[in-house]
Model the fold of this input.
Amino acid sequence: MRRHLRHYIHRHEPKGQAHHHLKSGIGAIAAMLAVGGLTVETGIPLLIAPFGATAVLLFGQPKSPLAQPANVIGGYLLAALVGSLALQFLPGIWWASAIAVGLSIAGMLLLRVTHPPAGAVPLVAYGSHLEGQDLFLVVLAGSALLVVIAVVHHLIPPRHQYPLRAPETP
Done:
């Protein structure tokens, strides 16, 4: 039993350096301040919970395929499309949001734009007043802003290559 439990509590992340972790936290703070500030200035509700999870990937795991710009923006747009369609055709039916989450995940995997935080967008659509064009505006503007901030952030030493470069073709 004890040996089996070890698989659940083992940490697979490599140990990092404190100054890298501090830089990641500062980057996330700056990104959330920018998104929140844009919310205040425009009145567009850009400060949605999935963006906090996106910040974890963009600033804490920038080399992850799940944190790359195509995944972030593409995953959010696909999930917004699925969530909006579900809400349009099945309004007020709570279980449709569960189906929309599953379809969003399947679509992201199929299109190779998997971004786990985007899986929550159909829940945002059902649990808020955001739908249709408003949902698209929020996820496009917010995800693009987070990616731009991440690109600039990772140019500051200690640098990380972000976004990852595509392999060169012969």
About this structure: Residues 18-153 form one domain. The two ends are 52 Å apart (CA to CA). The mean pLDDT is 94. The chain is about 65% helix and 0% strand.
